[in-house]
Design a protein that fits this description.
alpha/beta, 12 helices, binds orotidine-5'-monophosphate, OMPdecase_type-2, lyase, EC 4.1.1.23
């Protein structure tokens, strides 16, 4: 999906909602446990209930890898089931020396090499340029680089002063030399909304993946006020608050209610934006 296709999708669907598929087998509604693939049955129901409200889906790979080969199969089926008009994010937070990153990139981008076919993958910047470049070699694919994460530990390194910048600002500035906004997004936690205006000064055109509304308590209103751009420019993720709104037979209906509340608020914020 290209930059303008993603932007158009946001304005067409009046949404910048990313539904996080952090599907924990221990939290599945009991009635699904007799299904041949309970994780996929759950994801399928969540996707059916939210596909018109969401512009993106983000399976967190840890939840699938922790299930062994079965989890990988559930992930593949889930990815195949996500409609074509939704952006897909492999939330894997990868990055290693070049030849290893090359294999990580194949894992998420190259179905001809037995990998998956995600639109994007989350990447950790810690190992630097040569750890990131292999992901950028894929035409039409995106990387989403961790910049200022939502957790309290983000203060340990990302907020440290390096010269006249904080480390996360240096990550953003340096990453601009690796790729343009047509291939590069940044992760900024919703719990860091205070920093979004500053981040928009150094990353005015990049899409930002913003997790942390819902269960982590970030404010959609503040994120939208500081982060929205004329291209939309945001993908705001919620996982647990949507997936586990109910653990009963009504789980998909309740997930839809949660997703709809976020989408309706997003529609209001988008109405104030003049599209590029
Ligand atoms: O890269 C991410 O998606 C991510 C970055 C970050 O800073 N904080 C963060 O919570 N995430 C992910 O976003 C999701 C948040 O889930 P909920 O807190 O349940 O909405 C999880 O999959 C996290 O791994």
């Amino acid at each position: 999906m290209t930059y303008s296709e993603l932007s158009n999708l946001i304005f067409e669907k009046k949404s910048y909602l990313c539904v996080g598929l952090d599907t924990d087998p221990r939290k599945l509604p009991r009635h699904l446990l007799t299904e041949p693939d309970p994780v996929f049955a759950f994801n399928k129901a969540i996707i059916d209930a939210t596909a018109d409200l969401a512009v993106a889906y983000k399976p967190n790979i840890a939840f699938y890898e922790a299930q062994g080969p079965r989890g990988w199969e559930s992930l593949q089926k889930t990815l195949d089931y996500i409609p074509a008009n939704c952006f897909t994010i492999a939330d894997a937070k990868r990055g290693d020396i070049g030849n290893t990153s090359d294999l990580y990139a194949r894992t998420f981008f190259d179905p001809t090499a037995a990998g998956l076919s995600f639109d994007s993958v989350t990447v950790a910047p810690y190992m630097g340029r040569d750890s990131v470049l292999p992901f950028l070699a894929y035409e039409g694919k995106w990387i989403i680089l961790l910049a200022l994460t939502s957790n309290s530990g983000s203060a340990d390194f990302q907020r440290q002063q390096v010269g006249d910048q904080e480390l996360f600002e240096m990550v953003i500035d340096t990453a601009h030399t690796w790729a343009g906004p047509d291939k590069l997004m940044f992760v900024v936690g919703a719990t860091q909304a205070d920093e979004l205006s500053r981040i928009r000064e150094i990353a005015p055109d990049n899409f930002l993946l913003v997790p942390g509304v819902g269960a982590q308590g970030g404010s959609l209103e503040e994120v939208s006020r500081r982060g929205l751009t004329a291209s939309g420019g945001l993908l705001v993720n919620a996982s647990r608050s949507i997936l586990y709104a109910s653990d009963g037979i009504d789980f998909a209906d309740r997930a839809r209610i949660e997703a709809k509340a976020l989408q309706e608020e997003m529609a209001k914020h988008l109405a104030n934006i003049t599209k590029f």
